[in-house]
Amino acid sequence: MKTRIYQCEKQYFSPYASFSDKTRGRAREEEPCPMRTEYQRDRDRIIYSKAFRRLKNKTQVFFSPEGDHYMTRLTHTLDVAQVARSIARCLALNEDLAEAIALGHDLGHTPFGHSGERILAKLNPNGFEHNKQSLRVVDVLENDGEGLNLTYEVRDGIVEHKKSGHPHTLEGKVVSLSDRIAYLNHDIEDAIRAGIITESDLPKEEIAVLGDNSSGRINNMIMSIYRNSMGKNEVSMEKEFLEATESLRAFMFDKVYLDNAARSEEQRAGEMISTMYTYYLAHLEKLPDFYKGLLDKYDSDTVISDYISSMTDRYAVFTFEEIFIPKNFLLR
Fold first, then answer.
1. CA-CA distance, 124 to 116, in Å (whole number)?
2. CATH number assigned to the domain with residue range 2-257, chosen from the 4 options 1.10.3210.10, 3.30.565.10, 3.30.450.40, 1.25.40.530
3. Which residue in 113, 170, 111, 104 sits closest to 132, CA to CA?
4. What distance in Å separates the CA atoms of residue 134 and residue 136, rounded to the nearest whole number?
5. Is 59 helix (H, G, I), strand (E, B) or coil?
6. Which of 69, 228, 234, 302 could cross-link with 298 by S-S, CB 3.0 to 4.6 Å?
7. Cβ atoms within 10 Å of 181's Cβ, excluding its own
8. Residue 74 or residue 256, greater confidence
9. Whole-structure pTM value
10. What is the pLDDT of residues 148-197, one digit of tens each?
């Protein structure tokens, strides 16, 4: 079965694609799977990881929104994976590799979205970036400290997925673009749903280029990438579409991401994370056993960041209450 996959790839893939039988491999050698390629195995390992399951209760933009249809970190991840698969397919790249990278790209994200990331970056003398933490999750923290032992190409795509990154595969570049396409469009929908902006507030020139609804914009962005990248050793949008996308992104930062309404709970979330961070620095013995075990290899700031960044929004609130709120105050 796997041989047939390899043959299909050689027949249909772009010469610039990442072929499954040409992976640079894993840090630890393993017996090959008789059915799945190495990238398919990586995808499956990520889906079955604990970190992936926790994404369902982590904030995308809005903290604990009233309504069932706001994006979470998990639904964002699935959105990115779908866009990445579509782009990889139309460019004749490795869809399995793109999907694996997309599913793993935010595994290291903090509770409370980018607000939590900014707070941990200030607290930790070593700094904190969610893309680097995502790599640490798959290399060190998952599988009871053994890591997932993913392929080089998936690991590279995960750590380099940010706009400032430089992925070494075209599939990694696909995911980096897909991340921006996905969050830009679904965050517009969430911001309209939350009443922060209206459809009429969206910049007209950019919307005229990209499309007047989410599905249309996503389709047009993908088509622009196809027209500009097919048969090339590069993945990028056409200039007009790229400029419109960047301009719309700037609008979202001004009107939504940095808006007081979207960040109304950030101060309290920041105080919660800061207080827990300080508490664990002074009481390392209170860390769960798994994280205490990591102190033999890693400094306390790194391990505390590991623990806090792993928390879902709800678990962070629960842990804070367990540490600091007298039990009588929690009785209803």
1. 12
2. 1.10.3210.10
3. 104
4. 5
5. strand
6. 302
7. 23
8. 74
9. 0.95
10. 999 999 999 999 999 999 999 999 999 999 999 999 999 999 899 888 89
